[in-house]
Every structure is written in structure tokens, then in C-alpha cells.
Amino acid sequence: MTVAVVGLASFVLTRLDTQVTTPIGSMGVGRGRFPVVEIAGLGSDGSGFGPLTNRLQHDGLTVIDFNPDVAGIQPLTWKASSPDVHIPQLATQTVAPAIDDAVRRAGFDPAHQVIDVVAHSVGGLIMRYLIEKTEALPTTNDTLSWSARVDDLVMVATPNHGTRIGFLEATLGPGHSDWDGIAADMAPNSSFLTLLGTTEPAGEVYTTIGGDPWLWRWLRSGHHGFDGAVPAESPFLQGAARYTFPQTHGRLLGAGKTTALIAKVTSLAAG
Questions:
Q1: pLDDT digit string, tens, across residues 102-115
Q2: Can you list the positions of beta strands (E) in 170-218?
Q3: How far is CA 158 from CA 38, 101, 140, 186, 264, in A?
Q4: Which H or E element spans position 123?
Q5: DSSP category for residue 46
Q6: How many CB atoms lie within 10 A of CB 93?
Q7: 3-class state of residue 167 by DSSP
Q8: C-alpha 210, offset from chain centre
Q9: Tens-place pLDDT, residues 39-59
């Protein structure tokens, strides 16, 4: 009887939701094929980017390496240095200079090179801040703004609408005190998320991807469930392409359907 009940529950949960699929290119197409920057999420060592990096390189795309001391292409990983560090400070003082340095090492001029960005989890919030909220910062000579520099931004499991579970995971875990500022920024209705808003800016091309594994579909959020850390629909922004795949937060980035989608998005060009 128990086996039958479990089997029935599994059958129902796997069919509880229809995955969200936006036709590729229907919500906007980038300007072309550009070097790809990969940005990891909070507390990540970046290893989850491996399958995506391999797929992008197989398709002839240049992927920027952030750690030349380690074999292979390494994504940008980051960490907060204290509980007082919030996403704006992290974006402008840590992530932006790291991207400039890596792009320069790859043989490009960071002041003028257009890039595509694939960001996992909080990494997407970091890039949104650079793109949307640094226009007023002074630039030197004819340096491109971040809005002009980033062609496609693909956000995988990014809590654009916040995540209460992710906030608790970040603040209650042992040894995570330095994460408090970042965790506060990704809490639902935080002042930081209110500042960013929930709409794709005019002229930008965003793709948003959420994880909706059957295991967590009973824990509803909107029309879908959770990926274990972020609600499946939290990445969605008005005007941006939307997708969900039945994967957990940590596995979503490396899933075959996810990497295939990202490879298509970053390869498309208008016209």
C-alpha cells in the first residue's frame, strides 16, 4: 500500500505543472555572438558551470577564464568580506573589476568589448545592478556603460522576486555570518529588490530560467514550486523570456536542456 501511495504521489507531482517555455528569440534577440562571462552564485565554487562551458566552447563561443592558475575555463566566483557588504558594493568594487581584468587577459579591451553574461542565482542580481543602476557613475573617455557592454544576460535561478528560503539558508547556516548583507538583499520585498524592480529595462535582452523539480512542487509559489532555494518563478521579469526546467537549484545550471537553451540564446543575433 505504501509503495502504491508513493507511486501515485510521484505521478501526480510530476504532472502538476506545465514547464514554462518562451519561443527562443520572441522576447528579443541580442546583437551577435560575443565572449561569454559566467558568474557564480552565493557560496558557489563555480563547478556547476562545467557542462555549460563545454557546450558553449563546442559551439564556437569564447568563454572568459577568471582563474588562469587553474586548468580549464573558470567562472567568476566571489564572496562577501563582512556582514556589512551588500550587492551594490560587491558589484562595483569586486565583480566589475574582476570582469575587466579577465576580459583584458583574454585579449580584449574591457572598455569597449561587448559581452554576454550567464549568471547563476545571486550572480544575476549583481549583474542587474551593474546594468541598471550604474549609468550615473562617471566613465573615462569613451568607456561603454555596463548597459551597453552586456548584450544578452541569462539569469539561472536568480531570485529577482526574492526568496525567503534562500534568505534563511544563507543566514542560519554555520559560518555564514559574512553573508548577512547579501542575504538581506535577496529577501522578498527588500529595499534592494524594490530598487531593481521586476521589469526588463528597455533595450536589454534578458532570459530568465527557473528550477521546478517535481519533489518540491507541493510547496507552491505562484503556479509552480521551488528549486530548493529559490521559487521557480522568482527569476521571471516582465518583458523577459521565461523558462522552467525540472531541476533543483544546484543542478539547474548544468542540465542538458538548460545548456542547450543558453547556447542558442547567446548565439543568436538580430537581423
A1: 999 999 999 999 99
A2: 205-211
A3: 14, 25, 31, 9, 20
A4: helix 122-133
A5: S
A6: 12
A7: helix
A8: 10
A9: 999 989 999 999 999 999 999
